[in-house]
Design goal:
The chain is an all-alpha fold and 276 residues long. Helices cover 86% and strands 0% of the residues. The protein is built from 9 helices and no strands.
Length: 276
């Protein structure tokens, strides 16, 4: 009777690691949403100002006060968002390093040798820095992007649904391209982690065995090992950059295509007015 092979224990998810900091994350999300809400007010103010100018009913003082109030609000929310990002990311990184060091200190020597000091060093440095970067930049960017996409779509549809369809139509293209690129980047990130482990291992061996390397006159061999590990890490990093370099032109092309479609539709219908 065949036995089912035991499943590998799965590590905690990234969102699961952030659960103890949900209050900080909630403050970050609220600041991000409020700041982007005011950003969506700016096009509406400009539209109202243009319509008032065409009707010769523009009150410059009122317009300046409104723009100043919106700008001040965006500055305040962006300022507190930056504080929340920095505080949350540094606290998450500090607590993760403390917990990881406490867990490593309770292990025996065999565990450290089996895991290798290079991998432990990678976990304490680049892995935690990646989580820190996610909290400080990526998390706010994701929330901001989703809110702006939904909010801008609703704003466009409320102004003129026919013109809005040209803009909304390019979003699936951007989404499919983004998902394909990020799928490839995710695999490369795993390879990059292994390359960094290898590089840390080479550096660790060179530092600990410096006296033996000098005694055996094997500096060239160690140098070649370091160059190989460093080249591998550099090659993977450049591959990730090339994928992002491919993604950005596609997004710019789609946005310009939406602008072209909107401009063509506007010129074909003559002087466009909101809701026409």
């Amino acid at each position: 009777m065949s036995k089912t092979p035991p499943r590998r224990p799965q590590g905690p998810s990234l969102l699961g690691l952030l659960k103890p900091y949900r209050k900080l994350i909630l403050v970050l999300v609220i600041m991000t949403i409020l700041g982007n809400s005011l950003n969506l007010v700016v096009p509406k103010l400009m539209s109202t100002a243009i319509d008032s100018f065409n009707q010769q009913q523009l009150v410059l003082r009122t317009l300046v006060i409104e723009f100043f109030a919106v700008a001040a609000g965006i500055f305040v929310f962006a300022y507190f968002q930056a504080i929340a990002q920095t505080f949350a990311s540094e606290r998450v990184a500090r607590d993760m390093r403390t917990q990881l060091i406490a867990k490593i200190s309770n292990q025996d020597h065999a565990f450290v040798q089996e895991t290798t000091p290079a991998k432990l060093l990678t976990n304490l440095t680049s892995d935690i820095d990646a989580v820190k970067m996610f909290v400080s930049m990526a998390f706010a960017s994701i929330v901001s992007s989703l809110f702006l996409i939904v909010g801008a779509s609703i704003l466009l549809l409320s102004i003129d649904w026919l013109l809005a369809l040209g803009v909304v139509a390019v979003m699936p293209i951007i989404s499919v391209t983004f998902s394909i690129v990020m799928g490839k980047v995710r695999k490369l990130f795993m390879k990059a982690q292994a390359a960094i482990d290898w590089l840390n291992k080479v550096i660790n061996e060179s530092v600990l065995g410096a006296a033996l390397i000098r005694l055996m006159n094997s500096q060239q061999i160690e140098f070649e090992k370091f160059v190989a590990a460093n080249t591998e890490a550099r090659t993977i990093s450049l591959s990730i950059l090339r994928l992002f370099a491919t993604l950005i032109p596609v997004i710019i092309f789609c946005s310009n295509l939406a602008t072209l479609m909107t401009g063509t539709a506007t010129s074909s219908t003559g002087a466009w007015e909101p809701g026409s």
